[in-house]
Write a structure and sequence with these properties.
It is a single chain. The protein is α+β, with helices and mostly antiparallel strands. It has helices at 14-31, 65-71, 98-104, 110-116, 128-138, 168-175, 181-204, 211-224, 287-306, 313-330, 339-344, 405-413, 423-427, 458-465; strands at 41-45, 79-83, 88-93, 121-124, 144-146, 163-164, 235-238, 259-264, 267-268, 271-272, 275-280, 394-397, 400-402, 434-436, 439-443, 448-450. The strands form 5 sheets. Strands 4-3-2-1-5-6 form a 6-stranded mixed beta sheet, covered by helices on one side. A 3-stranded antiparallel beta sheet has the order 7-8-11. Helix 1 (14-31) packs across helix 2 (65-71). The two termini are 31 Å apart.
Length: 469
């Protein structure tokens, strides 16, 4: 029997998310020594329309992610309440403004919102103060749970209604880690669009002259697939620019450069994809680039082999470094030590300085990872996930090997570490720049499902660049 597409056959499950948050709060309070009253109403304010400075045009709108998580609504200037005892979700949208209709057309009306969103009732923002006043009178001990944020609307809250703002933010962040089937379908669809866009970049290589040609090809492909928003500012780095982890210029000529690193992903209905591919600009990888690309593939495969629900993210990251050390030794870039000694000395951090990946969802670097930027161990300092990864979470797995002079050269000047790196061999790899391979992966009970299908095999990419299918 054909499986139903949750996007086509249902609404974004906002009420399930509200119930999950309410349950988490109750569970948290039952285990906590904090003197925090239980929640009777959850209240959130969506992002407002903000005009550009000294201009009457609005800034690009991006809905607050916590608000979307509990509403599925990406409209500006909205509010929501969730009554915990009655499980009633109410959305407040701006009232119809006749002057605005002249310029922008009819807005979403309450009856349309009830059809479109998983809500129980839809009122206008003019009804919000009276609605909150009723909530304060209906419950003998009401507490309004709000998310601490800059807000201009807190005056809508009755003065006699107690509020609690210390835990809702972190609770929503934690609840967002495990995705439901609808969220997974959104991320999968974003990945499908990104696959087409990455393939468009591969096909643009023979005629491109500048990095900006690739950015244009990627964005054009996404828009033609219905995705007008990017999940983040894309990285289109050629040659040694690919060694800058979050390179942003995307405007340099391609002449004389070996490779192109593309880290870019489409957004679909506020959910992100995050995909990185590294491609040969000549249509064929050089010997050095092929060797590094193959090593990064081994690093990713080694992490995949360990990935399953309950695994320690640190163990996957460590395994990727172990493979990197062994590979760099075989290539002669590292020397004068056993793999164990080189790992202990953290020499591989010079070539793989970032974490293995992060959670993915409503944000590219999604919530709940509990990073520890104060970690004294340089190998783990930049991990965006710490601890065990749960079933149903979506993570990126993105190992890389980079030849960044700013990072590597201090190792060459340090008497303790320089002996481990062969500068003569290293000299032949600077032009490789950087190689990163990144896929978006659903963590399952016994393994994983790769949601990313963008071409990444060496022969497959070379064939597409050279005009094959």
């Amino acid at each position: 029997m054909e499986q139903k597409d949750p996007i086509k056959n249902g609404k974004y499950p906002a009420k399930n998310h509200c119930a999950r948050v309410a349950e988490y709060i109750a569970r948290h309070l039952s285990k906590s020594d904090q003197q925090i009253p239980s929640a009777s109403v959850i209240y959130l304010e969506g992002q407002k329309t903000i005009l550009q400075e000294d201009n009457d045009e609005p800034q690009p709108f991006r809905q607050r992610r916590s608000f979307f998580y509990l509403s599925g609504c990406a409209l500006p200037d909205c509010h929501l309440t969730y009554n915990v005892s009655t499980s009633t979700l109410t959305l407040f949208i701006p009232p119809l403004d006749p002057d605005s209709v002249i310029w922008s057309g009819l807005p979403l009306l309450p009856r349309d919102a009830l059809e479109q969103y998983d809500i129980d009732e839809c009122l206008t923002t003019a009804d919000l103060p009276a609605h909150l006043s009723r909530a304060s009178k209906q419950d003998p001990t009401p507490t309004l749970y709000i998310k601490a944020q800059n807000s201009t609307s807190l005056s809508s809250i009755p003065a006699d209604l107690p509020t609690e703002s210390s835990i809702l933010h972190s609770v929503i962040d934690e609840c967002r880690v495990v995705k439901d089937p609808y969220e997974i379908a959104l991320i999968r669809h974003a990945n499908d669009i990104s696959t087409r866009a990455h393939t468009a970049v591969l096909r643009a290589i023979p005629t491109a002259k500048n990095e900006q040609d690739f950015e244009a090809a990627f964005i054009a492909s996404c828009i033609s697939s219905g995705a007008k928003e990017q999940a983040y500012s894309g990285i289109f780095g050629s040659g040694e620019n690919a060694a800058t982890l979050h390179y942003q210029k995307n405007d340099q000529p391609l002449s004389g450069r070996q490779n192109l690193l593309v880290d870019a992903g489409a957004e679909w209905s506020c959910y992100c994809s995050d995909v990185t591919r590294t491609m040969p600009l000549s249509g064929t990888f050089s010997a050095e680039s092929r060797a590094i690309y193959s090593l990064v593939q081994e690093m990713q495969d080694a992490a995949f082999a360990l990935l399953r629900a309950g695994v320690s993210w640190e163990s996957l990251h460590l395994r990727a470094h172990e493979v990197a050390v062994s590979g760099l030794l075989k290539l002669g870039i590292l020397r004068n030590g056993s793999p164990e000694e080189l790992l202990k000395e953290r020499i591989s951090v010079a070539f793989f300085p970032h974490g293995l990946g992060h959670y993915l969802g409503l944000d590219t670097h999604d919530t709940g990872g509990n990073p520890d930027p104060g970690d004294k161990d340089g190998m783990f300092r930049y991990l965006r996930i710490r601890g065990e990864v749960p079933e149903g979470s979506v993570v990126t797995v993105e190992p890389g090997v980079y030849f960044c002079r700013f990072i590597v050269e201090p190792y060459l000047k340090d008497e303790r570490t320089r002996r481990f790196i062969d500068e003569g061999v290293l000299e032949t790899y600077w032009e490789v720049g950087g190689v990163r391979i990144e896929d978006d992966v659903l963590v399952t009970k016994d393994g994983y499902e790769n949601l990313t299908t963008a071409p990444k095999g060496i022969e497959e990419m070379e064939r597409i660049i050279q005009g094959g299918e």
